[in-house]
């Protein structure tokens, strides 16, 4: 769909918004849509998060891809991606096609991007266009051509149980505040005397507060006079027994610390997902080696891959519980959410350990842990899915 290089500049007063609606109606419901029209084709599908059909299974047929011959729950759909010559000349009269091809790339793409039932695949250079045949919802889309996964409503990574609006705020905050947090950690501290936030903008560790004129060491926050002969003692960790009095800047720092608490856990799960993706590849290699050595069949070892997939799904869901928790400070049932989040977190880490030590882990024990993790994941989603 993104390959619209034949389109020329000229609008000629055509109602392109209505034309896009006509494309959907004719392309998906007319008789001609039973034939594959493009020489290049691929497959795609719309599906909910794995195994989530227990509470949302009646919506799996609401989406279709403009691609040839794809079965959705036993129904045959036959279509393909939009292609100026192969599709349009069979969908419209020739004069309509000429007008369509003379429209600008930006006009057409903007109309498609703003259409509630159409989404471009987010995959790099992927031409797939996705259409929701019923009311569009925040559902998980997976393209089988490029394997990209994203939320249909916002085109971001699928993010249950966090809503699209919450995720948008969270991503903006991550971009804006993560750099601020790093800067605050590296360059600011509170004065030990008056607790004003002080920025260190030079290399010397001898600091003098501009408010109360207290002189102290930047490294250990101790009085500077004691550093003539005992300078190196400030390298030893000592807890500050005095809790700082609240000020506007202190509260701002605490707010930042609260954000960093959730951000670090969000980022940690993202790193773990990347590492466990590589771990799954190693499991696949190890299974292949065992099969070649006749140490069982592929079916005998398939449970290890299923365990890795379960771990991935549970950790992925767990990652997106943190934006929900950060913005849900005053929400009802917050304690219940945090309790279920903690249960899932503990079980996920236990499952991760068992997979890493699969050689010494009993198969039944591992499969039982998989079932427990999936049960906690689905329970959390059923209780707090906001989309």
Automatic annotation (TrEMBL):
InterPro entries: Ariadne, BRcat_RBR_TRIAD1, E3_UB_ligase_RBR, IBR_dom, Rcat_RBR_TRIAD1, TRIAD_supradom. GO terms for molecular function: ubiquitin protein ligase activity; zinc ion binding. This is RBR-type E3 ubiquitin transferase. Residues 1-238 form the RING-type domain. PANTHER family: RBR FAMILY RING FINGER AND IBR DOMAIN-CONTAINING. Its EC number is 2.3.2.31. One of its GO terms (biological process) is protein ubiquitination. Keywords: Metal-binding, Repeat, Transferase, Ubl conjugation pathway, Zinc, Zinc-finger. It comes from the Eukaryota.
